Amino acid sequence: MSVIMPEKISSHIPLFCLLMFAFPAYMAADGILRPYKERDYTGSVEEKSQEAIIIFKGGDEKKRATEDIILKVTAAGDAKSFSWIIPFPKQPEISKEDPKLFKEVFSHIEARKRELSYKPKSKSALGSAEKEARPQEAVVVLARKTVGSFETVVVAEKQAGALNGWLEKEGYLPLEGAEDVLGFYRKKGYVYACIKVSDVELTKDKPVDLHPLRFSFETGGRDGIYFPMKMSGLQTGPFDVNLNIFYRYWINDGLSKYGYVHRGFTRRYRDWDSPKCVPNGGKAYSAPQTDPFLRSAAGRIPTLAKFFQKRHPGQRFYLTNIQLRGAKPADVRDWSDDLWLFPYYTDRSFVPYDARPGGVAAAAWD
After folding, report:
1. Are strands 66-77 and 208-209 parallel, antiparallel or unpaired?
2. How confident is the model at residue 182, as a pLDDT?
């Protein structure tokens, strides 16, 4: 099935950061940020901003799709320590990443913004080992690992109400009144990355930037790009989401009902092909000096290039930026599934593989 690929396109480019304006304590747009439960705990923690980079590689009939989500949080408050809980379809590998990635991607997008002084007229081209849980265990610990400033544990809940008991035992605050959300993830067989931050002391007037974490995992599907959202429904105040996605093709915006515009997102930027580019060829982020589109940016993105050389050498991607502003937690909590993004299939009647009955994203559509 063919997907739409770019020849030329222009659009306005936003700030890269994923910002949580006027964000209440404890919450994160991709999970939940909470104080770490201490005997002398009297403080609070508030997420001020969050940035996300997603790198997706699709699968096929035999091979599952894989995804990297790189998250960076700026937090403020008066808690001595705090924790973070994020759901994933499959057990993630958790690694530390360089915060320069975010600065370089921001600079790259801003430079492209300055280049877009006109809107070119063109048409879009066409392109073509988890651990097994023992049944008697209510909560299964899949992995424990220290990653930089974070202590991480990946767990799976097997019985209703078991996760909160485990969280309290481990020193986390429980997720009160959240059984509808936890039950959703439990039925889908998801796991939770539970992360403690204990070597950073917060103050009310001084936000702290924490080094990014990369979560690498199989989505369990073929063509769906995953980003956790339903956990955000547990908060009380509205929030904004800004995602930067690297994928081999364009992302479905509003071509069919599976586009991100139907979740309230709008596109703010995406890479295009200049006359010197190979049509529909993607961009060589692992070797920007060889790419006609990225060559002028090579000196600005050395850390980003090293990341792609390490994780995705020789692979080609298009960068797409989408944004959601003022999301209401109650609305997100009522979503039938998390955020799933799909390729821009040229056949409007085509149903993405992962949105079909039995697919990992099927719950989001009839």
Report:
1. antiparallel
2. 94
